[in-house]
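Ticket #4471: structure export looks truncated?
Reporter: QA, pipeline team
Priority: medium

Steps to reproduce: submit the single chain below to the structure queue and open the exported record.
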Amino acid sequence: MREEIYTQPYSSINFASHRNTISPADNYHPKSTFLNIVNQLLVNIWNPYMRTDFIRRRAERWTWELIRREDENTDFANLGPVSGPMNFLASYIHDGPDSYAVERHRERMHDFLWVKDEGMLMNGTNGVQTWDTAFLIQAVVEAGLAEDPKCKPMLIKALEFLDDQQIREDCPEQGICYRQRRKGAWAFSTREQGYTVSDCTSEALKSVILLQRLPGFPKLVSDERIRDAIDTLLTMQNSSGGFASYEAIRGSQYMEYLNAAEVFGRIMIEYDYPECTTAVVTALAMFSRTHDVSYRKAEIEPTISKAVSWILKDQRKDGS
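Actual output as written to the record:
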């Protein structure tokens, strides 16, 4: 493999000299001068002279604890195909090649990998199942075909899927592992992936409400579970009035000075998004005006008002 990947003998490569080597085509978000200075200090001063074994062991223990919790909270699916393989390698080093964690990670890799004419590739997520199902339901309902005998069996199965994929519990000690509330939420793909997403929760919630109020459709998701989804959405509004995707904004945009990804920008913290905000507004409005007019009304109405104000403020001069 080393002979295939590299253009010169592996043993002759000075990897330290290539710490900042990157193709111009991939350098979408160049590292900041501040980060480059920090990296030089870490490599040339901190690591060789100041980092004690006690500090290293303590940092490794805490890092492993976060990895372990992430694996447990997602059944080893992890957030995506970046953290997944890294956690896989960490488990291999910490627990050994024959451990349950390594075995389960190896199985989970199939969630991301696929083969086509270009060779083996990796998806950005383990799927879009909940997201696509929710929009399919809404499209059929809006087209007036929900009670059509040809469509109804399919929609009942779709409702059963959303019933099964709703996240029923929060992460154990979620504050310790820096996780957003997730009880009642829907993920982008599956329940096992386990991450709250504001717009996925909103679209799935709207789909459930739309179907369960039609005659002949089973009421699979209880009112209590629908309220759980509302409770989670209400925790996700930012001080601006907008909504981000996975969690409320937790840090300053100055964190982007530490962004080392190079191929991605605006990833160190969450940001407000018109699409996420609009999805939450429409879900809260549907719930409070057509499903349960009294539940947390005193909080829902100002949440909607602030969100709409942010959407109008974020609109560009060309209308987009």
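Status: closed, not a bug. The export was complete when the record was re-opened. Leaving a note from the reviewer for reference: The chain has a mean pLDDT of 96.
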